[in-house]
Amino acid sequence: MDLERELAGIMAPERVLSRWIDRIAYANDASVYRLVPRVVVQPESIGEVQALFRVSRAHRVPLTFRAAGTSLSGQGVTDGILAVVSRHWRRLEVLEEGRKVHFQPGVIGGAVNRHLREYGAKIGPDPASIDACMMGGILANNSSGMCCGVLLNAYHTLDSISFVLPDGLAIDTAQPGAAAKLEREAPRLAAGLLDLKARIEANDALRERIRSKYEMKNTMGYSLNAFLDYSEPLDILAHLLIGSEGTLGFIAEAVLETVPDYPLKYTGLLFFTDVPRACAAIAALRDSGARALELMDRASLRSIEEQPDVPARIRELPPSAAALLVEYQCRTEEELEQHASACRELLPSLPLMEQPSFTRDLVEQAALWRVRKGLIPSVGAMRRRGTSCIIEDVAFPVERLASGVADLQGLLAEFSYDDAIVFGHAKDGNLHFVLNQAFRNARDADRFDAFMRALADLVATRYGGALKAEHGTGRNMAPFVATEWGADAHRIMRDLKRLIDPDGLLNPGVILNEDPRAHVADLKSLPTVESEVDHCIECGFCERVCPSRDLTLTPRQRIVVRREIARLRALRPDAPRLAELERDFAYDGVETCAADGLCAVPCPVGIDTGALVKLLRRRSRSDASQEIARLVARRLALAESAARMSLRLGRLLRRDLPPAARPTVPATARAGAKAVYLPSCVSRVVGPDERRDRSVIELMVAVSARAGLPLWIPEDSGGHCCGLAFSSKGFHRASAACVNRTVEALWAWSDGGALPIVLDSSPCAHTLKRSGTELLPQNRERIARMRILDSIEFAHDEVLPRCAPRPVGGRVVLHPTCSVRKMNLTGKLLRVAEACAAAAEIPASAGCCGFAGDRGYSHPELTEAAMREEAAEIAASAPDGCYSTSRTCEIGLTRATGRPFRHLWSLLDEATRERHGSAGPGPRAERSPPEAAARSSPRC
Parallel, antiparallel, or unpaired for β 808-814 and 837-841? Predict the structure, then answer.
């Protein structure tokens, strides 16, 4: 308790998290290890970090800094103080026209590249997890990736770094006098670094070993090459921090030099009869200019061969086959043609099973990369319940890669890892393997221990390779650092750790660990939970898109807490901590989840944690409440009338409520209609924000008519709904009743699918398209035969080709809803807006708005937290107009940003009709009255 009080004295108490649910939520990272922190803190300044170091020393409590927690080797867990820097360390600045980039550790790597894209640049490290991992981890692990090699990692592209050492010394190497400051304020440290350098240089064998080790990918132990590459103490220290996995100091900021982001690519998938033949082709392909060479063994290919878009040829490959995914990347057409020509000349000399086809088509290239990137999720999804998905990486000398792969496969078979796969960055001799392992008892742990020892002997001793190529040493390889490096290098590393962290309190047990069985200590079990999320491998890829990530829990943390609840229920159902967890989870896990399902998009295993939350909400509903909701669904037209009346009355008391929609819709005709238009229930209930605005229903009817695509709104369309409003709240009976009744009506209205069906709300379109599990068999067949179009698809595919939109003045901002992203319509949304405005853009930070239908009214803190970054970005850009494709999201976006968000078809309407005296899509010139619209001449 004294520790918590002291921590609350150095930072805001709400950033000191000591509840059991908070501690459990952060007890796991993406590895197989679990340590429950004593307390979780969220520092926001260097001063607070320095204070944390003081508290850690005073209480003799370990301190670990953590960013995204995507580390695969156990670097991000502790039983001491866990300092989470993902929430308050997100500053990012592009420097020198994209030649450099300045960032803090809480910035996601993919976000850095998105900001650099307009300059034709990116950062050198390119880990597969770049859209989830943060820059703090990229630097701390010296991450690399598919094209990074050994020369473009953070170590070699580092320009400057700002850090805090365990004694509290803070230095920014970019500041004048930084080197003198280190020698003045830490003379013992400066002298000690030079002494270690002298010891290495005096040891010829060690010096040569260091040089040879860093000719291949290697993140095992500390970056000893810093002692040979640099002569000044500050330069040595700065580069030792890279790859130190948070064990030497806290990285507060850094500047990296960028590398070219090649816009042109030439990609192909090559098949070989076996791994040795594939490996024999690597050198020639590399020398021809290939920047990516990804090796996949037959087990890898087998794990994904049944997935959509995977080439059918893969299913026909023989048992010993292997493949190389080859990609050339260039800046100019001339350069690309040179590489393509060299490739074509080379191919006949390679031992290929068949002549490959290369492509420059972006869609085809993406499909080929999905083959490679789908390997880890495929194995994770197939793992047996209760097992952990373990992902390791090693490096062999490239010239011995073929035999290394064979021996590694043999080792996996020897230990009965029958579902394991082997793949990797062949150009660098870097192999990954994925296996599934249970840790239910001592026998399971002993099996894993024996395998790891055999692996260390194989890779480090027999092949002279690296036991860690890019994932960092972590807890799982710390006992084997001496095995790989030898006694002299290991001694240097131990002396380095003592020199900088004499108390041994900074992330202890990571990189160096005196326990020979540390890799089988603190292993996490995975209790069986709901099938909706049981396949979660706890990688954390989902967290960046979660609207509640800065408020309560993320999808990964919701699953982690569910697993802890399951564990406690099995051990002791009356445990006080179980009751505490269940009580806190009601708000943190259920009430503040938007249940938008966006987390399934980046998830390697495709898990929709929103489905879990809907299930939990459903379980909380009584039979009586379910039946009442079903009755409401059956009389939805009456409920809509009541809702409109409630809005009219409610606005007398709360001006933040939207106005009610008109009770009638525009008159349309069945004869000659090109599509059936089903206005969403929200569009039928909630009107536009301003009286002079036209509803989206009026806009879609008018614009479609201009395009020669008259829409028909069935006279009895009122009362029909996709069911989302019910399912999101856990009323599954009502949802099923709604969607089945609606599909039956759509089938009749569309003449058995002869006419397409258009919806104005993207969430409704997505719900209908994915409604199969709630439909009766006959309705499943019907919906499969109907063409259901979101308003974005209809605008892009049907209206624009028949129109000549005149772009209105000004620049507009778009917010793609979660459903738009899940339907892969973001590109079409942008293209429609670009055709209708002088300029259009999507904020880099755009995500889920967190309004979630009406949850933004009951839990406004969710929308506020979800929109914080996007609202700031929109305010800074000062657009002339803002648009989306969901009325409820538009309400939430307007509330969060203070700028009116309107439906995309409002913009389409303006651009397809003559306008009189309007300066652009700003708030004061956004609309003409309906009467003026009727008089305006058509643009289509």
Answer: parallel
Helix (H) or strand (E) holding 266: strand 264-272
Using DSSP's 3-state secondary structure scheme, residue 390 falls into strand
Closest to 284 (Cα-Cα) out of 371, 333, 334, 345: 345
Sign of CA dihedral 695, 699, 700, 705: positive
Beta strand 711-712 with 100-103 is unpaired
Report the alpha-carbon distance of residue 165 to residue 172 in Å, rounded: 12
Give residue 452's identity as a one-letter amino acid code. Answer: M
Q: Which amino acid is located at 796 in the chain? A: H
| Beta bridge partner(s), residue 297 | 322
Please give the Cα distance from 398 to 761 (Å, whole number).
54
521 CB-side CA count, 13 A? 16
Residue 414 burial by CB count (10 A; 0-12/13-18/19+): exposed, middle or buried?
Answer: exposed
Place of tokens 């998905």: 389
What's the rounded mean pLDDT across residues 446-462? 97
Nearest-5° Cα angle at 661, 659 to 665: 165
What is the distance between the alpha carbons of residues 113 and 103, in angstroms, rounded to a whole number? 12
Helix H, strand E, coil C: the string for 725-788 is HHHCCCCHHHHHHHHHHHHHHHHHHCCCCCCCEEECCHHHHHHHHCCHHHCCHHHHHHHHCCCE
Reported as a pLDDT band with limits 50, 70 and 90, residue 722 is very high
Q: Is pLDDT above 90 for 655?
A: no
CA dihedral 235, 240, 241, 244 (to 10 degrees): 180
Helix (H, G, I), strand (E, B) or coil at 169: coil
CA distance 632 to 640: 10
Phi first, then psi, for residue 236 (nearest 5°) are: -60, -50
Residue 939 has pLDDT above 60, yes or no: no
Give the residues across from 394 on adjacent strands: 431
Cα–Cα dist 720/638, whole Å: 11
Tokens standing for 580?
């505490």
Supply 660's token pair: 């009610």
Give pLDDT, residue 930. 37
CA 275 to chain centre: 32
User: Which parts of 32-122 fold into alpha helices (H)?
Assistant: 46-59, 109-116
Kindly state the tokens that stand for 579.
């009751």
Among candidate residues 490, 521, 503, 420, the one with its CA nearest the CA of residue 165: 503
Quote the CA–CA distance of 537 and 556 in Å, as a whole number.
9
Do residues 94 and 75 make contact, with C-beta atoms less than 8 angstroms apart?
no
What is the pairing mode between strands 387-395 and 430-438?
A: antiparallel
| CA neighbor of 910 nearest in space, from 899, 895, 900, 920 | 920
Identify the H or E element spanning 83: strand 81-84
Distance CA 177, CA 860 (A): 48
For 426-470, the DSSP string reads GGGTEEEEEEEEE-SSHHHHHHHHHHHHHHHIIIIIIS--BS-SS
pLDDT number for residue 926? 38
- pLDDT value of residue 928: 37
CA distances from 630 to 201, 724, 752, 779 (A): 79, 13, 27, 19
Per-residue tokens: 816: 């793609």
Vertex 775: Cα angle to 769 and 776 (nearest 5): 145
What average pLDDT does range 192-213 have in this prediction?
97
Contact 106, 250 (CB under 8 A): no
Q: Tell me which of 210-224, 654-668, 759-773 is least confident.
A: 654-668
